[in-house]
Amino acid sequence: MRVAVVGTGAIGASWTLLFLRHGHRVVATDPDPSAEQRLRAWIDAHDDTPDASVRQRLAFVSDPAEAVREADFVQENGPERIEAKAEILAALDGSAGPDAILASSSSGLMPSQLQEHCPRHPERVLVGHPFNPPHLIPLVEVVPGRRTGEAAVRSALSFYTALGRRPVLVRQERPGHIANRLQAALWREAYALVGSGAVSVADIDAAIAHGPGLRWALLGPFLTQHLSGGPGGIAHILDHLGPPMQTWWDDLGDVRLTPGLVDSVVTGVRDALAGTDQAALLADRDALLGRLIAAKATTTTL
């Protein structure tokens, strides 16, 4: 399959590596004059496969219209601004073949809003939102818009599944889609707790990373609750802890990102990272992610 990657920043580069690893021919494009050099250097640094043909399947062009002209699937990774995406998608819609899927990596824009700028074939436009970095994290949110055809949805789900991803179909458009909204709910309370002085930034991170985050890496919130309920499962949990949980919900913070709160969080993160090599931290995170994902793949239930 011929895949076009439009925009080769952090997300686009990671997508590119994933597509190449699965044998696809990739034509990448980005307006930055140094983009090709940076992309190829990034691929060299992150591709640990012995397959020399990976790099040979990558081409780079400066013109987005040329990049998508013969593509079967297009992954757009432009700036997260509707004005920027409108210009990009209009050009892609005007050049890509009628059967090519146009998938945007947008982390929060509505696909119906994106379709407005693709008058030729809005039925093939949807959101294919990855989690960073896409070549490691399996989740992809597939979000159709009002005018997206069923065939395009099926094709996108099938394509991402064949890449070893775990696509989820979002049946109703929501700002931020699904997983980012779940993260935002946690961030909201985390920022509220820090802002109130209840806990430090470092201890918030420790509470998640060494507590529920370990379970959430294996199972989602509902199955985690269910297993916590013993033989009675989630029904027992909701009977036993449902009323207290409602009081916790009622007590959650109503937080605003004031300059003072932003300063507290930035300072807290800086303090938590004091003496830490951030590049090494990132490398360790990615290495552990890879081992965790590989371990999960050996099970029959997770």
UniProtKB/TrEMBL annotation:
Q: Quick check: keyword Oxidoreductase in the entry?
A: yes
One family from Pfam that matches here is 3HCDH_N
This protein's source sits in the domain of life called Bacteria
UniProt keyword terms in alphabetical order:
Oxidoreductase
Q: Where is the 3-hydroxyacyl-CoA dehydrogenase C-terminal domain?
A: 176-244
| Coiled-coil ranges from the UniProt annotation | none
Q: Which InterPro entries does the entry mention?
A: 3-OHacyl-CoA_DH_NAD-bd, 3HC_DH_C, 6-PGluconate_DH-like_C_sf, 6PGD_dom2, NAD(P)-bd_dom_sf
The pathway entry for this protein reads as: Lipid metabolism; butanoate metabolism
The residues covered by the 3-hydroxyacyl-CoA dehydrogenase NAD binding domain are 3-171
Which range is the signal sequence, renumbered to this chain? none
Family, similarity comment: Belongs to the 3-hydroxyacyl-CoA dehydrogenase family.
Name of protein:
3-hydroxyacyl-CoA dehydrogenase
